[in-house]
Amino acid sequence: MNRTSLESSQATRRGFLGAVGAALIVRPASATPASMAVAIRQVVGDAEPKRGKVKLNLPPLVENGNTVAMGVSVDSPMTPQDYVKAIHVFADKNPLPNVISVQFGPRAGKADISTRMRLADTQTVVAICEMSDGSFWSDSVDVVITFGACLEDS
What's the structural domain count of the chain? Predict the structure, then answer.
């Protein structure tokens, strides 16, 4: 059997991918303020996070969103009776709203994290901490990005 007759009798990979590509609409994943609110509700439930105790350290103006230094610290004695259970960070325009969640225990010493993250666009970043007494505390920063990250087609 020659190649031409073989290709005509079987679906080619290129033909299959072309047919699939014609049927699918591909869009980059992107969170919205509404999806961030849903993600936050999944963490806090019906509780209303209060301002204070949490400090989100994030520059308000970032030239390149590919690597943004971020830190979150919580004012807590970290005793068995009063400690931070978790810190959660959310961004409203990244591909997914949940950026990071870190669990703590009373023996952690202090509730302080630092890392780097990617930011897709100018957006609001929110840090929420869950305390051992069930309360939630928050801080937020509006960040202006001049060159965004997390973009598939850039």
Answer: 1
Domain with 44 in it: 29-147
Residue 13 lies in a domain: no
Distance CA 150, CA 72 (A): 22
Q: For residue 60, what are the contacts with CB-CB under 8 A and spacing of at least 6?
A: 141, 142, 143, 144
Query: Tens-digit pLDDT profile for the chain (154 aa)?
Result: 555 554 554 566 666 556 555 555 555 557 788 889 999 999 999 999 999 999 999 999 999 889 999 999 999 999 999 999 999 999 998 888 999 999 999 999 999 999 999 988 899 999 999 999 999 999 999 999 987 666 555 4
How far apart (Å, rounded) are the C-alpha atoms in residues 67 and 55?
20
Say whether 92 sits in a helix, a strand or coil. coil
Predicted TM-score (pTM) of the model is 0.76
Specify if 20 maps to a domain: no
